[in-house]
Amino acid sequence: QVQLAESGGGLVQTGGSLRLSCAASGRTFSRDAMGWFRQAPGKEREFVAAISWRGGSTYYADSVKGRFTISGDKAKATVYLQMNSLKPEDTAVYYCNLGRIWTEVVSTGGDYWGQGTQVTVSS
């Protein structure tokens, strides 16, 4: 069974940067896309970014476009999220996600999720 291990969360001041990592282990065959979601207290889970291993195409939510960058290393089955110019409204638990194709991740999320890592941005 697929396991997703996340790291990189923490506390940062407004305007700072963090880099999240997510490494997949187990049977990842036939799963071509990974992405990130986040959920803040009192809010619904929202899509952040996704990447397709085939062609390296990416997609971003409007709220993070220009500030966040998703990238990955297929050989290591690892995806990254570089977060710059962080704002207090970025504070949330960030979840890594794995799906068959990137449209699946963008729409509802694939069927494998990480445990979540806390990102807190202070003013």
Short description:
The protein is mostly beta strands and 123 residues long.
SSE arrangement:
Layout: E1 3-7, E2 10-13, E3 18-25, E4 33-39, E5 46-52, E6 58-60, E7 68-73, E8 78-83, E9 92-99, H1 102-107, E10 112-113, E11 117-122
Parallel strand pairs: 2-11
Antiparallel strand pairs: 1-3, 3-8, 4-5, 4-9, 5-6, 7-8, 9-10, 9-11
Structure explained in plain terms:
The protein is mainly beta. The chain is built from one helix and eleven strands, in the order βββββββββαββ. The strands form two sheets. Strands 2, 4, 5, 6, 9, 10 and 11 form a seven-stranded mixed beta sheet that branches. Strands 1-3-8-7 form a four-stranded antiparallel beta sheet, with no helix packed on it. Strand 4 and strand 5 form a beta hairpin.
Count of helical stretches: 1
Report the helical percentage: under 10%
Distance between the termini: 40 Å
Per DSSP, what share of the residues sits in E-state strands of 2 or more residues? over 45%
Report the count of strand segments: 11
Shape: globular
Any descriptors?
single chain, 123 residues, mainly beta, seven-stranded mixed β-sheet, four-stranded antiparallel β-sheet, 1 helix, 11 strands, 5% helix
